[in-house]
Design a protein that fits this description.
The chain is of the alpha/beta class and about 270 residues long. About 20% of the residues lie in helices and about 25% in strands. The termini are far apart. The chain binds adenosine-5'-triphosphate. Keywords: ATP-binding, Nucleotide-binding, Transport.
Length: about 270
């Protein structure tokens, strides 16, 4: 039997004095596209950052592609798009150079032959081929986000972990991104993606996991369109229920409005 792509068991993470993740179990099998949902502060970023080895678990276990988190993980097969940070960060690198940095890993400190072509192909996948030579600092926030997505794609990962990849990205670019993802998922890519709204990716999501106060409160069917509010404008999901979350801004008894966007969790 093949090991799951991601296998998280009884994961606890403390950040400073906060007990942020409180016994999370999460399994993602090969070929699945799992959305990680929850209000602001529920622990989504902490979970994905721990899964990709950026943060240390306080307790519990994380296996990635069949290997316990650490040097044994074949990191070159894993792509990670962090929550929106500037791809520029004061460094005057071109888009192609930032993307090519995604080819660096472990023991290889030099870029492989043909890196420019690989970087250009990855930029093409996010609709930015014409910006390859441009300094990232001159790109818009949404374009910088797409450069970071290309940086994750350039290594042709089999597991892709994304933290709000389309936040601040305009609708046409979201559509282009969803189309690229659909192709990659067709080819067998496994995805764990933090989202505030399912948006253009809705059709790709095979399962949704909802966090609340650092615990999983739903693991199953993704949010479904609400009969009356299934339009794009109402695509908000409601994590404050252990029932299947519903897409729609006015679910009876759950909330007065969209709960994922802009809502901050209060500690219990
Ligand atoms: N370095 C830190 N030290 C202490 N607490 C932290 C630290 N980083 C995050 N936290 C807290 O951990 C909790 C979870 O944060 P996290 O970023 O994982 O939530 P999130 O669900 O990803 O939120 P968002 O939707 O806003 O991105 C929050 O209460 C946050 O304030």
């Amino acid at each position: 039997m093949t090991a799951p792509a991601i296998d998280v068991r009884d994961l606890h993470v403390h950040l400073g004095a906060s007990h942020v993740l409180r016994g999370v179990d999460l399994r993602v099998d090969h070929g699945e596209v799992v959305a990680l949902l929850g209000a602001n502060g529920s622990g989504k970023s902490t979970l994905v950052r721990t899964v990709v080895g950026v943060l240390e678990p306080t307790r519990g276990e994380v296996d990635l592609l069949g290997h316990r988190l650490g040097d044994d993980v074949p990191w070159q097969r894993v792509g990670y798009v962090p929550q929106r940070v500037s791809a520029a960060a004061g460094v005057p690198s071109t888009a192609a150079e930032v993307v090519a940095s995604g080819l660096l890993h472990g023991r290889r400190l030099a870029l492989p032959r043909g890196w420019r072509r690989l970087a250009r192909e990855a930029l093409e996948q996010v609709g930015l081929a014409d910006r390859a030579g441009q300094a990232t600092g001159q790109l818009s926030g949404g374009q910088q986000q797409r450069v970071l997505i290309a940086r994750a794609l350039v290594r042709k990962p089999e597991l892709l972990v994304l933290d709000e990849p389309v936040a601040g990205v305009d609708r046409p670019s979201q559509e282009a991104f969803a189309a690229t993802m659909a192709r990659l998922v067709d080819d067998g890519l496994t995805v764990l993606v933090v989202l505030h709204e399912l948006g253009e990716l809705a059709g790709l999501i095979s399962r949704a996991v909802v966090l609340r106060h650092g615990q999983v409160v739903h693991d199953g069917a993704p949010p479904r369109p609400h009969a009356e509010h299934g339009s794009r404008e109402h695509e908000h999901v409601h994590p404050h229920t252990s029932e299947v979350p519903v897409v729609g801004a006015h679910d009876v008894g759950l909330s007065d409005g969209p709960l994922l966007t802009g809502e901050q969790e209060a500690r219990p």
